[in-house]
Amino acid sequence: MPELPEVETTRLGLMPILGSSVVTLTVIQPRLRLPIPDSLQSIVGATLLSLVRRGKYLLLGTSKGTALIHLGMSGSLRLTPTDEPYRKHDHVILVLDNNYSLRFHDPRRFGLFLWLENEPFQHPLLATLGPEPLSELFTPEHLFLLGRKKKQSIKSFIMDGHIVVGVGNIYANESLFYAGIHPLRPANQLSLTDYQRLHHYICQILATAIERGGTTLRDFVNSKGNPGYFQQELMVYGREGKNCLNCQQVLELVRINNRSTVYCPQCQPTFE
């Protein structure tokens, strides 16, 4: 699944489209996680004014309304020459007035492409989201105060979008490894010092992943169709059964909330 760095990489790559206008809209497959609404046709003739990210959502602001987009499990949003042939699983095509097309590609069809005419951040999908992890609102104290009320595993806690947005499975694995925290440790057992260390690595790893263009494990490509390169720096994710790059201990796999979780039993010791 594209996580925060992949979505932010997509956003940055698409910034040059701002100021363009939509000439035509083609919806090839409307059946995504939620059906593409007929009201999306309103985007035709609109000028593209802004492109912001909230968690893993993209909000394409126009002179007529806002397109709310989620890349789902395998989606991408690419800018291509208008005359380039459609690819299988290209579901939404916006032809712009600059001889380029914005194409929403989603093989597994878990993504979203909605149209909002009211205040977008009040939409139910966005209204209750937690702070952005690279913002000033995300602090160790924020994690500590909320975490001391939670008995769930620390990995599940930091992946909860109501606590903090955008910390998906890849980056949760990596952050906990660098912080030396066992992923099954209950959130309410971590001290403020633990949360300070974890907060530091969440921010550092997400920022580095954005610089590297995200992580490509299977499907993700950026707005130009290129993969990300952060996967070359992964310490634990996807490396179960291999030796830890830090201590040579064999990495172990456990499933937490049905998500693969890889950790080092020596660098991330068990807890009392």
**Sheet bearing the most strands, described?**
4 strands, antiparallel
Structural class: alpha+beta
- Number of helices in the DSSP assignment: 5
Distance between the termini: 33 Å
CATH class of the largest domain: Mainly Alpha
For this structure, the CATH topology of the largest domain is Helicase, Ruva Protein, domain 3
Low-confidence stretches: 216-223
> What does the radius of gyration come to?
20 Å
Short description:
The chain is 20% helix and 21% strand. With 272 residues, it is α+β, with helices and mostly antiparallel strands. 41% of the residues are buried.
Structural account:
- The protein has helices at residues 4-14, 140-147, 154-158, 169-179, 192-211; strands at residues 22-27, 48-54, 57-62, 66-70, 76-81, 90-96, 100-105, 112-116, 252-256, 259-263.
- The chain has 272 residues and is an alpha+beta fold.
- The chain has two domains: 4-122, Alpha-Beta Barrel (N-terminal domain of MutM-like DNA repair proteins); 140-263, Helicase, Ruva Protein, domain 3 (Orthogonal Bundle), CATH 1.10.8.
- Strands 1-6-7-5 form a four-stranded antiparallel beta sheet, with no helix packed on it.
- Helix 1 (4-14) packs parallel to helix 5, helix 2 packs across helix 5 (192-211) and helix 4 (169-179) packs across helix 5 (192-211).
- The protein is elongated, with a radius of gyration of 20 Å.
